[in-house]
Input
Amino acid sequence: MTGEAVVAVEGLSRRYGQTQAVDAVSFTLERAQILGFLGLNGAGKSTTMRMLAGVLAPDAGRILINGTDLLDQPRPAKQAIGYLPEQPPLYRELTVDEQLHYSAGLHRLDRAASRQAMARVKEQCGLTNVGRRLTGNLSKGYRQRVGIAQALLHDPPVLILDEPTVGLDPIQAGEIRALICELGRERGVILSTHLLSEVQATCSHVQIMRAGRLVFAGALAELQQQRQSACLRIGLNAPPLVAELARLPAVTQVESLGGGRFRLHHAGAAPTQAVLDQARADGWELWELTPEQASLERIFVELTLGRGTAE
Amino acid sequence: MIGVIATHELRRLFLSPLAWTLLAVNEALLAWVFIILVNDFQNTRGRLAALEHAPGVTDLVVAPLFRVAAWGLLLLTPLLTMRLFSEEQRTGTLDLLLSAPVSATQIVLGKYLGVLVFLLSAVALMALMPLALMAGAALDGGKLLAGLLGLGLLAASCAAAGLYLSSLTAQPMVAATATFGLLLAFWIVDLGAGQGAGNALFGYLSLPRHNDALLLGLARSEDVAYYLLFSVAFLGLTIRRLDNLRLRG
Output
């Protein structure tokens, strides 16, 4: 972890009236990292991202973007950010080209640079054929793409994307995810979502928020390691006694699911081979053997609802 | 940077049917008033010729026309300025401006400039009608210019007030209503005020009263300063409000 930190946040807090929306959040993001912000609705994801983008002023805390303090020197810091809010900020009566041109102007690109940048982002985001269409007439997927293209125009080292795939059909969402993965190779990307599968598909790092606090921060792999036990689901036509299953190597607990199906909780590597060998030797007539995928989901639920131990 | 925002604002105004409709309606109504004024002037010309120091066509046609045009501005500006900030708040496009490397002052001045250019072109359109009189009559150029300056300053003041009220709400109609109410209050604040020291204040606050001298061809720095102060005050309030939006969320 010796990469160059493009975002560093310390003790960020924000309250709306009586509600503490974000409470002392600290983290860093490095170049070539894609950080997934996970949490239920209202957990403080959007508020945090709005503060990072300079749209909302924090009550307390410090935000360094590419080494520049966002609150002391907003202009150079904001020049280093590309921000896509929950609703892509598009003027319905402008065409895609006009919209991108305006955004390029706001980010101080001159005429030639703006023309180059527009050609580049339209290529990247698959917008080359819709340049003359009004943004108000585009489908949700295309509007989202224009929003991302707009955030990319000035080639910022930091991208902040607030729920970039919400409301898209699975194919569009897949395309946007692929685009984000590609963008994340040379930039620092922060994206928020409430979909765990999206984080698994795109992110290298995860942060889980609950009620304004960070309850988990680390690499995706660390989250996967957090599972205390993994499971193997088996189905048998001639099941033995539960006690016999419990004697299998590494099995810590056996749950009977009825109809000859069992869930074997195990520690360490899954005892697949042992189950197969034993089933053949004792004639259990094995018809199902599935490693359970739900463990990451369960950790997510535990962390977001506050039932877990990872506080 | 202010130029980028101003151009964008102006382009959006010309893309909306509302702005074109307002221009057309305003121009049509003024044309009607203009015809009546010219007709009246024709009818009284014979009697006026007998007078010494008789009022000319500029006093009898152009000045009353500009007085009506001032009322036109009062009706026009709230509908033009209502969208400036309120719609951006409602649709979330304000986030694009707030997250861009531009200051609140630049945003406010850019938007103000955009709508002001539109209003000044509306004033220029209004000026075309009296200018057409030059074909057959001698106009007093100084009085005409003073009258146009008055309309321009009035437009600048109305636009600044409208811009501020538009930043206060996410509902364009609320912004338009409030702007109209505020401007009308400044319009009629001197009604019922007679002579006397206490009434001087109300007279001073009145928006159109400062236009009266200009319509007579008298460009006093006192009147110009009033309009400039009025505009700067509301622009300052708008910048403050925009910074506050970031704090309040």
Q: What stands out?
A: The two ends of chain A are 24 Å apart (CA to CA). The mean pLDDT of chain A is 86. Chain A has two domains: 5-225, 230-293.
